[in-house]
Amino acid sequence: MENTLSLTKYWLTDIVIGLDLCPFARIPFERGLIKTTICDESGEEEMLSAALIELENLNEIGPQELSTTLIVYPNGPQSFYEFNDFVLDLEAMMEEAELGDIFQLVAFHPEFVFEDTDFDEVGNLVNRAPFPILQIIRSEEIMRAMKNPKDGEVISFNNDKKLNALSQEARDSLFYYLKK
User: Fold this and answer.
1) Out of 48, 54, 69, 80, which could bridge 111 as a Cys pair, Cβ 3.0 to 4.6 Å?
2) pLDDT tens, residue order, the chain (180 aa)
């Protein structure tokens, strides 16, 4: 199987950017402003530590040098719900450290399920990555990119439309890393 970094790059370039699932990702990627780091640890304490280090780095570096960080946890929780609990714990820590207004977290996981959806709904593919991945993004960049409060709904609707327009064969080919 491909190594963690190359499979993550495939997911970012061919899925996230290639399908335009996140219309805000292309420019930072092309400008080299997205950092990808791997945390091989599986314990929650070590995973939190890696995230806190990356939060500190982003907080110290200006957005012209680094826009967002992806932390890949190849040995992280196999259960999406366990990974989601980890992300919620980190968000609580960010609030305590007064970083909650500065950064936002986005979770990606091979078994990602949006709230109130069934596991097999095509729309869940938007956040299905080859590994548990945590994105740390600057809140101000999201606000600057989202000119209208309804932009998120429009993006979600368009993503659903794009993914549903693909044949099952095309989805299986693109998201081959989900087949175990």
Assistant:
1) 80
2) 469 999 999 999 999 999 999 988 999 999 999 999 999 999 999 999 999 999 999 999 999 999 999 999 999 999 999 999 999 999 999 999 899 999 999 999 999 999 999 999 999 999 999 999 999 999 998 887 777 767 788 888 999 999 999 999 999 999 999 986
Give the tokens for residue 142. 């999201």
Whole-Å CA distances, 16 to 37, 42, 103, 175: 17, 25, 20, 11
C-alpha–C-alpha distance, residues 10 and 27, integer Å: 17
Residues 6+ apart with CB under 8 A from 52: 93
CA dist list (Å): 42 to 50, 105, 107, 118:
11, 19, 16, 27
| Domain assignments of the chain as residue spans, ordered by start | 4-178
